[in-house]
Write a structure and sequence with these properties.
This protein is mainly alpha-helical. It folds into six domains: 138 residues, Rossmann fold, CATH 3.40.50.300; 97 residues; 79 residues, Orthogonal Bundle (Arc Repressor Mutant, subunit A), CATH 1.10.10.10; 180 residues, Serine Threonine Protein Phosphatase 5, Tetratricopeptide repeat, CATH 1.25.40.10; 132 residues; 67 residues, Arc Repressor Mutant, subunit A. It is built from 36 helices and seven strands. Helix 20 packs antiparallel against helix 21, helix 26 packs antiparallel against helix 27 and helix 30 packs antiparallel against helix 32. The two termini are 33 Å apart. The N terminus is likely disordered.
Amino acid sequence: MVASAMGRPSGNLPAEVTSFVGRRNEVSEARRLLTQTRLLTLAGPGGVGKTRLGLTVAGQLRRAFPDGVWLVDLAPLADPELLPVAVADALGVRDESGRPLPDVLRAHIADKSLLVVLDNCEHLLEACAELAVTLLRAAPGVRMVATSREPLRVDGEHVFTVPPLAMPEDPDAPSREVMATEAVTLLAERAEAAVPSFTMRPEDAPTAARIVRALDGLPLAIELAAVQLRALSLEQLLERIDDALGLLAGGMRSGLPRQRTLRAMIDWSFDLCSPEERTLWERLSVFAASFDLDTMERVCGGEGLAGEAVDLIVGLVDKSIVQREQHGDAVRYRLLETIRQYGRERLAASGTETELRRRHRDWYQGLAARLDAEWYGPHQLDWFRRMRTEHADVRAALDFCLAHPDEAATGLTIACELRVYWHASGSLAEGRHWVRLLLDRHPEPDAVRARGLRTAGLLALYHNDLGGALVATREARELALRLDNPVLIAWSTLAAGFATLLGQDIRTAVPLLEDAVARMRATRDNGGILLSLMVLANALLLLGDEDRAVLLGREAVTFSKSIGESWMRAWLMWVLGIVAWRQGDLRRAAEYERDGIRLKRAFQDGAGIGQCSAVLGWIAAAEGRPERGARLLGAADAVWRRTGSSLYRHLVDLNEKVVAELRSTLGDDGFDAAFAEGTRLTLDEAVCYALEERTRSRPRGAERAQDTLTRRETQIAELIAEGLTNKEIAARLVISQRTVETHVEHILTKLGFSSRTQVASWFTGERSA
């Protein structure tokens, strides 16, 4: 995400790695259309530049959308049921409510002003159309840009057909005119990038014009052709393009469709690769998203690749087949979607697709197994970040297992090994989706199914689906006992005790949980020990045995520190804070909850931060700070609405008692006003308020910005604060509306703001000061 991951980010658009050439008219028209429609579809064939145009337009509109501009890349997604999951993931919405995810998304965006870019919709048209209508109806401040080879065909959609780049009408026109056209400019820039010594000369203009006209002005085709200038002159390049396209068209170039032009260029690029590079290209098409060198060597190496894989990947990068991306200190690679689809066709034709997809699946099964084994340890946060990066390919591995009946057990094993990841990443709906489908395909009453049922029960509990949890955990325990598997019996007992606790049957839950703790200790399962101690401490707290709850909680914290994990420790801090609050040790209670928030911050766990913030609200109320208590409860409520979660059901009664006390102290109007103030905090502001830190929401340098604004800019900032529109400001100052718009852009840049609302708030604060 751009900006703070915990604050109000400006979006998740990727950084541009190459220059964006031309398209001035198309960008201007798309921006104009977005002022008239809330759903703009950029349509056209592969390689015409729909994605690049959409991202450029979105990037230029960042300041118009205070709540960000968000890219949802749908190319790696095969299952239309996961479309809401992909959108939620892109928007940073963690789902822990148990409600249908479209409902969670509607609630999240209802009061937002944001732009969503749905990229590569063509293989999910019906699902994209349905979700677009659902979200746009729910949120008047939301607009969408879709890129697709076909329109979505819904009411209110405006379709803009993306044309090829502008080309010279006459190759023999004056060289200045030819070289100024978009297609020739792109050819020149990409040629210079591929061959640093290359310079497009005026005498080259007619040849360059004929090259781009032969390629129909398709950006991807031009970029693939430009790379060949490392070995060819412009004249040789034109001759070979004419040969390739003439052969494809049966000697008749004039009627060649653009999509066949691009296909011919990709065919030619493929033919120019060495046999080993072609093999690697085909094999790389099994990746749904980006990959690193180690993963590539393990999945794609072996027979058929005579050279070092790293040398081959460098060759494909040089030929513009593979894109190189920087991810922090690491380098990853990816194929453009059109190139990936071509490689997948070749892989299928080679008869090795199933073998490569199984190797891909095996790698990600190994990755999931390592995460499961190492999660409760010092590399927990590294694993969390790694799996966020690999998420799309985990889906691809699970898709493979679903598509092959004999792979269901393996798929179910992978989904179960990712249990903690589904929870930590807020992907509970997706985790439950995979487990449910794979359980349906694996009815055998064996250890794999027992583990699947246990995972289904735990994910349902985290998802606040008590009914689903009870059914799954009951069957899991019966099967585990029948199999006499100590590990599965321990986990199914824990799940049963957890479900019983959330069902408010505390006296029945405690012995189940005590049994689970003993079994986890016997099996030496670190994660099971921590989770069972945490849940048992919760139960003892509600039963009134606070001293024992403290002992168990502290034991678990000590154990957590000894193995170097922090995810479960954050939840333990939450429980210990509640116990300390109940015992009247308010200072220690607040310390526990703040420590929990600090740990959860690293995982961007908004739902967990909400739980800790609510308890801090209870503590503030007990400290005699009712306004702060109400604000913290409001902040927690806002976080839960954004993440689709809520206070855990076994604590609802405690929360209602605190709310009643605060209403009695502040009065209904006072409580409602303070609560509403809390709901207006961003997640970053809520965290800073909970920790009693100075908020980081004020842009750096804004406090000095008034010194840098011109007299006219200060005047316009004041009128913005009065609520005037640009048109009204222009009339008031007797200047053009365009001049006002320019001044507003300068004000936003100098202040580091993204919206007029921020300008108004800043100016009001400065005037008060």
